[in-house]
Amino acid sequence: MIVVSNTSPLTNLAAIGQFALLHDLYGTIQIAQEVWEELNAFGHSWPGSREVANASWITQTQVTNQELILALRRDLDRGEAATIALAVELKANLVLLDEQDGRRAAQRMGLRPFGVLGILLEAKKQGHVSVVKPLVEELRQTAGFYLSDAVYQSVLNLAQE
Fold it and tell me: Over the stretch 60-107, which tens digit does the pLDDT of each residue have?
């Protein structure tokens, strides 16, 4: 399975101490060079930067289709655009993105976007975590992850919590 990740799933999971779930669920993760640069823009002070630097199962790849990145940059930030372009190049099975605009763009490109909430639900389904609710609460409080009350309730319903 080929999985490409944007910055936010990496930082959000690292912020709540669940970074290893990515390896548990997907094995190897690909990131675009632009994502690596975003993670390291402030040294190792950003959640996830140190974890990514130390994770042998995360591979940085330079996107070759720079024209696609430029086209995507009209609506997306640099990391999201590069993530989607890399996912297209690698014919990824899954692209990890949290931002709504990025997820819509990925779907338009024929990709399957999956966010941090989906990762937590999948981790519960596979038995890597026993409950999702405290992790979602921690995402909201510690990582500053925004989700509406309706989405929050939907996630808890899907988790049967």
Answer: 999 999 999 999 999 999 999 999 999 999 999 999 999 999 999 999
Burial class of residue 127 in the structure, from the number of CB atoms within 10 Å of its CB (0-12 exposed, 13-18 middle, 19+ buried)? exposed
- Which has the closest alpha carbon to 13: 151, 135, 157? 135
Over its C-alpha atoms, the chain yields an Rg (Å, rounded) of 15
How many C-beta atoms surround the C-beta of residue 44 within 10 A?
14
Q: Domains plus CATH for the chain?
A: 3-117 (3.40.50.1010)
Question: Could you please report the per-residue DSSP string of 26-70?
Answer: HS-EEEEHHHHHHHTEEEE-STTHHHHHH-TTEEEE--S-HHHHH
Q: What is the per-residue pLDDT for 143?
A: 87
